[in-house]
Design brief:
The protein is built from no helices and eight strands. A hairpin with a 6-residue loop joins strand 2 and strand 3. Strands 1, 2, 3, 4, 5 and 8 form a six-stranded antiparallel β-sheet that branches. The protein has a two-stranded antiparallel sheet with strand order 6-7. The chain has 89 residues and is mainly beta. It is globular and about 45 Å long. The protein has a single domain, classed as Beta Barrel (OB fold (Dihydrolipoamide Acetyltransferase, E2P)), CATH 2.40.50.140.
């Protein structure tokens, strides 16, 4: 599966958790996901701790998906690694 970052803008959402009453901050980046269906899917990727945002480019997902209690579950850290351009033969 590949994820394409076309825009490096990171949107930040902050607030107070209703459940814990503690502050939270979520950082999201819009991406295009290829390889999970017939067509690419545009979605938001919640960035893991320590990741300020991904540079524009194509990335391979190295973290496996699992099936959990609520369906398909993915770690917040997808282990994205840049895809290197293939050289012409």
């Amino acid at each position: 599966m590949q994820i394409v970052v076309e825009n490096e803008v990171v949107k930040v959402r902050k607030g107070i958790s209703q459940r814990t009453n503690k502050p939270y901050e979520l950082r999201e980046q819009e991406v295009v996901v290829h390889g999970v269906g017939r067509f690419p899917v545009i979605t938001k990727l919640t960035l893991p701790e320590g990741v300020e945002g991904y540079k524009a480019g194509t990335y391979e997902v190295t973290t496996p998906f699992t099936v959990g209690r609520y369906g398909l579950e993915v770690s917040r850290d997808l282990g994205l690694s840049p895809v290197r351009a293939k050289q012409a033969a």
